[in-house]
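Q: what does this look like with 5'-deoxyadenosine bound?
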Amino acid sequence: MNKGPENKKEIHVSEEEIAKQYQYMNSIKEANAQCEMQTGRKKLAFLQSFGCQMNENDSERLWGMLSEMGYGEGKNSEESDVIIFNTCCVRENAEEKVYGHLGALKKQKMDNQEKIIAICGCMMQQGHVVEHIKKKYRHVDIVFGTHNLYRFPELLNKAVNTRSAVIDVDESAGSIVEGLPIERKDSIKAWVTVMYGCNNFCSYCIVPYVRGRERSRSIEDIVDEIAELGQNNFMEVTLLGQNVNSYGKDFAGNVSFAELLSEINKVEGIERIRFMTSHPKDLTEDIILAMRDSKKVCEHLHLPIQAGSTRILSEMNRKYTKEDYLNLIGRIKEKIPGISLTTDIIVGYPGETEEDFEETLDVLRKVRFDFAYTFLYSRRTGTPAAKSEDQVSEKVKKSRFERLLGVQNKISKEINDTLLGTTEEILVEGLSKNSIWNYTGRTRTNKIVNFKGSKELVGKLVKVKITDIQTWSLEGEVISW
Ligand code: 5AD
Ligand code: SF4
């Protein structure tokens, strides 16, 4: 097996560089400890993450570094000494939220000049955003991007010591970083990034411009991380990447995603494996077979279609037709009966006609997804689709969106209804948000099941009989564990 050693030399951030960051972490840790001795108060940090799981995983790395530097978790920005926004730019509303939050911090900074306000993530990889922040949000102390997240300790040192704004955005195609500390949010399920970046340049999407080119971590590094999770009683991993199906294509010798799944399937302690996001053009037969044959890989696939019309798919640069997609789904359902399918759909891509939209509804009815994540098309500066003159009006977009939800919700409910009375294996995650008496877990098909339980069940696989069905979740009774 080719584990990509050549690749490792070229694009990995050097061990010396990481060691340097640990030195910066140490020096802040000492300063913080001294301050705590003098004041009796631990320094606190507040981190808000926007966007996808990849960002959540980056935030876990930021937390790893913050903890290493001696920061505790603040409940809000008011009581915290360091405030970080890890931003997303996939859609305009995510950006607007960040500007709203940043604006609200102005007064806090005026009242306490010692507070450090940092902003990082995908939005910062866009030049026009950084310029806007420099002009309009002068109370921001640190700006950094996705490629140099590992340099946060150095940037924080600089900001604390110089008391001037530190802006550091790396516009290269990106690198791979190993060896950073991590503090995970959950103790049962973990995110594991297996590849970074995207080469697809779908015409509506900003991600390839802000997350750089596709680069895969070595199998060794991934398996080591997952083995450690297994030893630490984690039960489930979700492998992350913008396009996980093309894992390993950047190595000389082509290590495949299928091979990666089979390797991870052998890791002791881990009972469930999930992954996202898949691209239909790269979801090859060997991946379907690896899913079928790897016992721990769950019967769930998130496979974004984006639109049902072949004409729109071609405009989107998705590289498959409606028929290709339906065909692929047919093969998956045949090999993995009972698999649950979810998707992403964009409504109102430039030039989308009523007929095009009907094609999307037709796909929903034919595939019968368990769930669809639906988005109104959002114009992203710098992408080809943003230049189109043929933008669909907000009114039409919203009306199509509602119609789509109507069709999909009915299908989701009908699929869930078939589970009434069945027995499902669920991984118990903890207390349910609905009521303190109820516990919650997920089936292998990723459906939420709420049930009456007790805390000894948390982190265990238990058998539950499904007794009631909601559109978005199920209810059940524990029958064995
Ligand atoms: N507008 C709306 N939705 C988008 N997505 C990506 N870019 C845009 C955009 N400009 C959606 C796609 C993708 C998901 C993560 O976000 O459906 O799969
Ligand atoms: Fe964006 Fe397309 Fe890459 Fe997904 S595959 S991140 S939609 S460019």
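The first helix runs from residue 5 to 11. Residues 364 and 408 are 7 Å apart (CA to CA).
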